[in-house]
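Duplicate of #3305? Posting structure anyway:
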């Protein structure tokens, strides 16, 4: 849980380990916590433990943990040696320091803007600066302040939206508001949370899946509210602010196949991947994106179908890497999934829909009339147009969460189909450490 194992497989891992170690154990996983019960058949008693941990992602340490788990399950090492190695692993420092990850955060934001959100060369430096600010807030400021952690998403979205609209308003054809804003926020999208929730629901883990799904939707609403507030504040200051949600021009589609490996590399380094893990991660992410890109040409009205096809390729490549190369499939596929989520959202254009709501907030002016020359009355418009405006505002706020659920469900279907293709009968001696 600490290093980002696939949560819908955790109970399976523990049952398999208990079987190998000949322990009578029962396990129940809920988000951020696992309840463990050890039974004793001779005394008819049981011992219960509550393991709580803040879930994170560390691809390098996750690979090491999986190696230890695999060696224990296959009787290659004993429990005492495994515990010693785990203690050393937990105390080990991060592979890349926080300041390096902040720079990678900015570079990844710059690389994702062109291939996912239609950005151009001139938009990349702005996306890099805003991405560095978001990375600094997430990796350095938030861990040091519990109070700020609670409002990180909103403050980051407000700042990025405000600054992005400010740059986009300098010259309508110079900077692209949509590409800059979405690129800077792409790395804090709750796509991984929704993906885990959908995987848990698909695995019939209803409690954990429903809790995680609901949290991810509320998280998406926080981001949407932040984008709306930032755009509205700048629109209040500048009446000539841009309202374009698309870029006037875009780079050649062939440049996308350069930026996808660069973005995958940045994501892997941010999530502490080891150098030897990088080649398969980049290859799998590139293969999945190429298939998803061309599938989206044929299924432009149903982005979840293109996501499912891309995820099927990612899952097959990742599971073949695990089966043939004996690597960790989950860690190899995770950066590729992070590439799929912003691409799917960009196909639906829901992330910057909040700017429409911001314009409606500023244009909702009361009408002042004079009655009999002495009485001033403020008349609030209640026409059908106003009702339609309110409905569209609500739809734009909910749009991010709904779009992310649609994309994630498509990805989940593709991943489960890929696992079925490569492992039609499962694995006998160890749990499926994969999606």
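Output from current build:
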């Amino acid at each position: 849980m600490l290093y980002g194992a696939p949560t819908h497989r955790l109970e399976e891992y523990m049952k398999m380990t208990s079987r190998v170690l000949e322990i009578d154990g029962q396990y129940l996983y809920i988000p951020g916590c696992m309840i463990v019960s050890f039974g004793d058949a001779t005394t008819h008693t049981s011992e219960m433990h509550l393991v709580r941990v803040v879930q994170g992602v560390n691809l390098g340490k996750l690979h090491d943990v999986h190696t230890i788990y695999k060696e224990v399950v296959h009787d290659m090492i004993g429990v005492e040696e495994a515990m010693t190695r785990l203690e050393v692993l937990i105390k080990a420092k991060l592979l890349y320091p926080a300041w390096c990850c902040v720079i990678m955060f900015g570079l990844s934001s710059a690389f994702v803007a062109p291939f996912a959100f239609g950005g151009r060369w001139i938009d990349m430096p702005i996306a890099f600066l805003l991405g560095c600010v978001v990375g600094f807030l997430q990796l350095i400021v938030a861990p040091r302040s519990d109070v700020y952690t609670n409002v990180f998403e909103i403050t980051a979205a407000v700042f990025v939206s405000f600054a992005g609209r400010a740059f986009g308003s300098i010259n309508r054809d110079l900077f692209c508001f949509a590409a800059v804003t979405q690129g800077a926020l792409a790395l804090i999208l709750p796509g991984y949370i929704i993906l885990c929730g959908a995987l848990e629901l698909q695995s019939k883990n209803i409690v954990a899946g429903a809790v995680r799904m609901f949290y991810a939707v509320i998280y998406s609403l926080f981001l949407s509210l932040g984008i709306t507030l930032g755009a509205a504040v700048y629109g209040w200051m500048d009446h000539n602010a841009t309202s374009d949600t698309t870029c006037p021009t875009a780079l050649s589609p062939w440049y996308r196949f350069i930026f996808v490996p660069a973005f995958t590399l940045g994501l892997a380094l941010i999530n502490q991947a080891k150098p030897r893990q990088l080649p398969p991660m980049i290859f799998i992410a590139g293969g999945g994106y190429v298939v998803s890109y061309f599938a989206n040409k044929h299924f432009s009205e149903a982005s979840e179908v293109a996501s499912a096809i891309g995820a099927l390729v990612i899952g097959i490549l990742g599971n073949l890497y695990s089966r043939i190369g004996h690597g960790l499939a989950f860690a190899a596929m995770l950066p590729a999934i992070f590439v799929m989520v912003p691409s799917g959202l960009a196909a639906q254009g829901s992330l910057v829909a909040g700017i429409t709501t911001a314009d409606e907030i500023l244009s909702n002016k009361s009408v002042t009339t004079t009655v009999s020359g002495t009485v001033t009355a403020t008349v609030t418009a209640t026409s059908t147009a106003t009702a339609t405006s309110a409905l569209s505002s609500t739809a734009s706020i909910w749009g991010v969460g709904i779009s992310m659920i649609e994309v994630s469900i498509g990805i989940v279907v593709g991943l489960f189909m890929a696992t079925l293709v490569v492992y039609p009968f499962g694995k006998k001696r160890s749990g499926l450490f994969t999606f």
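Confirmed duplicate; merging threads. The CA atoms of residues 191 and 341 lie 6 Å apart. Residues 365-393 have pLDDT under 50 and may be disordered.
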